Amino acid sequence: MKTSAFFSRTRGDSGFKRLLIHLVLIMACIVAVYPILRIFSISIRPGDSMLSTDLSIIPDNATLNSYRQVLFGDPATKRKSDFFLWLWNSLVITLTTATIGVILSSSAAYAFSRFKFHGRSAGLIFLLTTQMIPAGMLLLPLYMMLTRLKLINTYLGLIIAYSVSAVPFSIWLLKGYFDTIPPDLEEAAMIDGTSRLGAFYRVILPLSTPALAVAFLFNFTSGWSEYLVARVVLQKAAMYTWPLGIWTYAGQYTLAAGRFAAASMLLALPSMALFLYSSKWLVSGLTLGGVKG
Amino acid sequence: MISLTPKVMGSSLVTVLRFLLLIIAALALIEFVLYTLFHRRPKNLLFGLLALAVTIALILTFVRIVWPSQGLDMVRKVLIGVALVLADVGLYRMLSVPRKSTVGLAYLLLAPSLIGISALVLYPFVYNVFLAFTNMGMTTIRTYTFSIQNGLANFRSVFTGVVAHDATFWQVLGRSILWTGINVVCHLAGGMGLALLLNRNLRFKGIYRTLLVFPWAIPQTIACMSLRNEFNYQYGFVNSLVRSVGLTAIPWLTKMPWAFVAVIISNVWLGIPFMMVTLLGGLQSISPEYYEAAEIDGASKWQQFRNVTIPLIKPVTTPSIILGTVWTFNALNVIYLITQGGPQEKTDILVSSLYKAAFEFYRYGFAAAFALVIFAFLLIFSVVYIKASGGLKAAYE
């Protein structure tokens, strides 16, 4: 990082102070991570000690039985597992919405960043205003619209309902990032014979990978774990996305707790890995349109 | 019950791909029309008027004759519509000459999101305003009436009646403000504290940052559902901890004020990482020269924070405070998945009461009016805050 000069300020930190800082940070990390480790520990509990007040991470007689039940069904009750069906439904819906969302927001953000047109600041404020719409307010009209279009209980219904939900925020995010790229770069490319759109595609987009990654992530996560809209739009069990699915496990502190925890781990790990992998871009991508120069 | 087979996967992919192709085709048509409009102008006034008249005539033909006709199916109607549009654009091209436009491209780039937002945000919003003036409910879903009286009655019952089962608007409003206030202050304080600690030359800095982002990285639904279990009186780890330090277990989730404390703890835990990451980004963008200058002037660490850090990260804090406030205010997931508003709606905030009014009590007209009132509150807050802080100017000018 290029901030080394700044750190010379902390040269004066005494050993004791540094120890204190480490202690505070370790405490904070434990608070941040323990509830998640706890899901893991419930997921490997054996069936007879599901109801336990044990606080340790690795329980006695740890077993992968809950995972087996989630992935392959329960041989004792002949219940088949729907885990892969939920996962597939969720993947199809969220990947589609995230792709649509990033394409829409990056092109709009470029217009907001590089052109002075009528209604520009009004448009940006309008986008911010859409964030003030209370959750659930648009759900009822959307539900009626989808019913009329016969899209209840379909992928398309939920894709449509999700598709623009993260777009206003993504436009702000990407506009802020595009603003930090000097326009000279595109001008140079245009002198070399590309069109304006070509410059956007070949110069701006490759330079904006961090912000595009964050925007994709936001669009993806806004649908990936969404529960309340899905509950209204998808009523058939065959169409369930995973948040609806694991809700059938959650709720009681019985054997289902193990299945719930195992399913949660299986679902949380990949999405957390994706999130943490892109977290190196988070700081530079998430300047929220505020920081300049 | 359908299980996942290659056939199911194939058919779902085909559905989605067909939908995407349809969207692309529709957008291409719209962009083509817009491009012609922005990058050509009529040769003279007469031709311009002629093109306008033809366009109106074609629109009328479509709306009056093609669309209502019984003999044609949906696909044919759409195809005829597309043909009419193409014919009209073709005619306009003959009657016009090219021109150079500097902002035309901007509108072309904006059009897709504008259409999407209009159809999926603006239209539902307007429809919601319409609903607020009807008496639509479970029993009147087909026979509802639209009138000013209905609207007034809806708005009156928002302010005087109960919003879900037995909580009144004012109680829920007060609780929402308390909820938002406590959460945002804790998010800011926690996020700023951690960001300041991390913004220095520290061993294991990367590991700390990664671990601290965990509550943001875990899907919120999973976090909320499992926190709900962890606040369980008997078996949750929170009470195990409480017992292990020798206190009596706390009835989280079933008694006030503990239920409210439980949802606040959960939401603070979930929200600190976002603030930490944005504030850290802001802190790193401050040039060290400012601090050097302040140090030469003899400023203490606190004075540096107060007079250098705070003003310089304002462009980051203002939008994140607004977003944080709005997101917390709208944290329907957290409330609904952890306490479902219980016990006796004592932890409901405005948005969860709204969800209940619409989808559990089926008072559609009332819920629409209620939603408008909540929207007005958020809007007024944001306008006042933006005006007072002036921090957003740099972003949109």
Number of strands of chain B: 2
In helices, the fraction of residues of chain B equals over 70%
Between the first and last Cα atoms of chain A, what is the distance in angstroms?
16 Å
Structural domains of chain B: how many: 2
Work out the helix count of chain A: 15
Tell me the number of strands of chain A: 0
Low-confidence stretches of chain A: 1-10, 288-293
Can you say what the CATH homologous superfamily of one domain in chain A is?
MetI-like
What structural class is derived from the secondary structure elements of chain A? Answer: mainly alpha
- CATH class value of one domain in chain A: Mainly Alpha
Overall CATH architecture of the largest domain in chain B: Orthogonal Bundle
What do these coordinates show?
- The complex is a heterodimer of chains A (293) and B (397).
- Chain A is mainly alpha-helical.
- Chain A has a domain at 83-285: MetI-like (MetI-like fold, Orthogonal Bundle).
- Chain A has 15 helices and no strands.
- Chain A has helices at 4-7, 15-43, 65-72, 83-114, 120-130, 139-148, 155-163, 167-179, 184-191, 196-207, 209-224, 228-233, 242-247, 255-277, 279-285.
- In chain A, α4 (83-114) crosses α8 (167-179) and α5 crosses α8 (167-179).
- In chain B, α1 (6-39) packs across α4, α9 (220-230) packs parallel to α15 (332-338) and α14 (314-329) runs antiparallel to α17 (364-389).
- Helix content of chain B is 73%, strand content 2%.
- Chain B has 2 domains: 7-101, no CATH class; 163-362, MetI-like (MetI-like fold, Orthogonal Bundle), CATH 1.10.3720.
- Chain B has helices at 6-39, 45-66, 74-94, 104-132, 148-160, 169-198, 205-212, 214-217, 220-230, 237-244, 258-284, 288-296, 301-312, 314-329, 332-338, 350-359, 364-389, 393-396, and strands at residues 40-42, 96-98.
- Chain B has 397 residues and is an all-alpha fold.
- The two termini of chain B are 55 Å apart.
- Chain B is globular, with a radius of gyration of 28 Å.
- The interface between A and B is large, with 126 and 122 residues.
